[in-house]
């Protein structure tokens, strides 16, 4: 199943947010999207998930425009975990995950024990089975985030779009979640802020800046000190290992001149 974006342009209220964005997501790959705040990662993912429509260009799923697929057909193929996904409903943790089964239910396919088993497994995979009866509003940010991922896993869509999936998670859960997602037999597109996580888990990385993709390739190719300086304004050393991996070490900026310090010294 191939998801592609071609020549996407998207603007709001006369402001251009995305300009001529093209991206082919390879089946089975883990594609990271990195870029500074406001560079367009969420906007691109929303277009690729079909919840927003581009003013120009198209997103295609297996060569057919997304707009030609029905909502349920898209939901069976693409699971999207949004950055600030929230629910105001008074539901339990388990019920939140059960929502992932919605695209598979219908008059002829009511809820079954197979759905229960899928939900059980998704809860276990994100280490939340013990919280299944807890009410949503009593859960911490990280616990909710893990349930959003469980809901997406329960959806059993072959393509998973994750907008900052490690938001709110402690470092142990960040790494185990990325590993969990990586181990699934899925095509994954994830917006990530942690460049070392992107280097560790992604097959390819797309770098966004000012609403455009300015680089696309393997982590070792894309994560270059000069590019990171240009895009993020940070100074880094990139350590490379013999297996083709890389690790980014950030350098502390030089102290600002005294006159620019926010708090004047007495
Ligand atoms: N509905 C909207 N109306 C107006 N501006 C919008 C809208 N959606 C996004 N934007 C603007 O578009 C730009 C890109 O936003 P987007 O959320 O896609 O960036 P991002 O790369 O995901 O940022 P972050 O890393 O902060 O999550 C931002 O400047 C944002 O303010």
How much of the residues is beta strand, in percent? Answer: 25-35%
Give the spatial strand order of the biggest sheet. 6-7-8-3-9-10
Rounded radius of gyration (Å): 20 Å
Shape: globular
Order of helices and strands: EEEHEEHEHHHEHEHEEHHEE
In DSSP terms, counting alpha (H) and pi (I) runs of 4 or more, how many helices? Answer: 9
Number of strands: 12
Low-confidence segments, ≥5 residues, pLDDT <50? none
Distance between the termini: 64 Å
Helix vs. strand class: alpha/beta
- State the major sheet: 6 strands, mixed
Function: Part of the ABC transporter complex HmuTUV involved in hemin import. Responsible for energy coupling to the transport system.
Pfam family, one: ABC_tran
Protein name: Histidinol-phosphatase
Organism: Shinella yambaruensis
Protein architecture, described:
β7 (159-163), α6 (171-183) and β8 (187-191) form a beta-alpha-beta unit. The protein is α/β, with parallel strands linked by helices. α4 (113-125) crosses α5 (141-154). The mean pLDDT is 92. It has helices spanning 41-48, 71-77, 93-98, 113-125, 141-154, 171-183, 195-201, 219-222, 225-232, and strands at residues 3-12, 15-25, 30-34, 56-61, 64-65, 78-81, 159-163, 187-191, 204-209, 212-217, 236-240, 246-250. The longest helix has 14 residues, at 141-154. It contains 9 helices and 12 strands. The strands form 3 sheets. A 6-stranded mixed beta sheet has the order 6-7-8-3-9-10, with helices on both faces. It has a 4-stranded antiparallel beta sheet with strand order 2-1-4-5, covered by helices on one side. It has a two-stranded antiparallel sheet with strand order 11-12. 30% of the residues lie in helices and 26% in strands. Bound molecules: adenosine-5'-triphosphate. Adenosine-5'-triphosphate (ATP) is lined by residues 12, 17, 35, 37-43, 83. InterPro entries: AAA+_ATPase, ABC_transporter-like_ATP-bd, P-loop_NTPase. Residues 3-235 form the ABC transporter domain.
